[in-house]
Design brief:
The chain has eight helices and five strands; from the N terminus they run βαβαααβαβααβα. It is globular and about 45 Å long. The protein has about 190 residues and is α/β, with parallel strands linked by helices. The protein has a single domain, classed as P-loop containing nucleotide triphosphate hydrolases (Rossmann fold). It is about 60% helix and about 10% strand. Helix 2 packs across helix 3. Strands 2-3-1-4-5 form a five-stranded parallel sheet. It binds adenosine monophosphate.
Length: about 190
């Protein structure tokens, strides 16, 4: 199995790149943001609980996210070649839970690919995405700033966690989509060697 984390601040292009990487390497793309938005659309109990956190640019509680990912891994681990995690793990607790879940399946994270993009570039990109994405959390500069602050305070330490395991690869997240994709692929190819 090949298991990767695509890491970076909101608006760093994770979703776009993750879809392409998952296709090229036949990985199951698991985006907790997409999974939560689907719960919102279905108006499920989980969706209703998550809505107020998402709307404020806050993180959804760890136990909700870990439960959601754990169910998904249990349901799919027999049939996939690996996972591409996108927008997860976002806290130290989530990273520790993920390591345990994978260990139970006899596998592990092979690499964390971190896209580096400046805060100014990110705010511009998210506001632009908000014009068409229909996401209310992409339209308000205050919420975007809050998401970036949460990223620095709670999510950046996740890279530290995997740094200790020597699994972090940092790549520039600015430039054309194709150029960034190629640099991600060459980093992944090196991991597979
Ligand atoms: P994203 O699409 O990854 O930017 O996620 C949108 C929103 O969903 C975030 O601002 C959080 O409120 C919530 N969310 C997504 N993934 C997670 C996660 N792993 N942990 C906590 N909250 C999350």
């Amino acid at each position: 199995m090949l298991n990767l984390i695509l890491f970076g601040p909101p608006g760093s292009g994770k979703g776009t790149q993750a879809a392409r990487i998952a296709e090229r390497y036949s990985l199951l793309h698991l985006s907790t943001g997409d999974m939560l938005r689907e719960e919102l659309r279905n108006e499920s109990a989980l969706g209703k609980e998550a809505k107020r956190f998402i709307d404020g640019g806050h993180l959804v509680p760890d136990e909700v996210i870990i439960g959601m990912i754990s169910d998904k891994i249990d349901a799919t681990s027999e049939e996939v070649d690996g996972y591409l995690f996108d927008g997860f793990p976002r806290t130290q607790a989530q990273a520790e839970a993920l390591d345990k879940l994978l260990e139970l399946k006899g596998t592990r994270i092979d690499g964390l690919l971190a896209l580096e993009v400046s805060e100014d570039e990110i705010t511009q990109r998210i506001l632009k995405r908000g014009e068409s994405s229909g996401r209310s959390d992409d339209r308000d500069p205050d919420i975007i700033r809050n998401r970036f602050r949460v990223y620095l305070e709670e999510t950046a330490p996740v890279a530290e966690h995997y740094e200790q395991q020597d699994k972090v690869i940092r790549l520039p997240g600015e430039g054309s989509i194709d150029t960034i994709f190629e640099s991600l692929c060459s980093a992944i190819d090196k991991l597979e060697d």
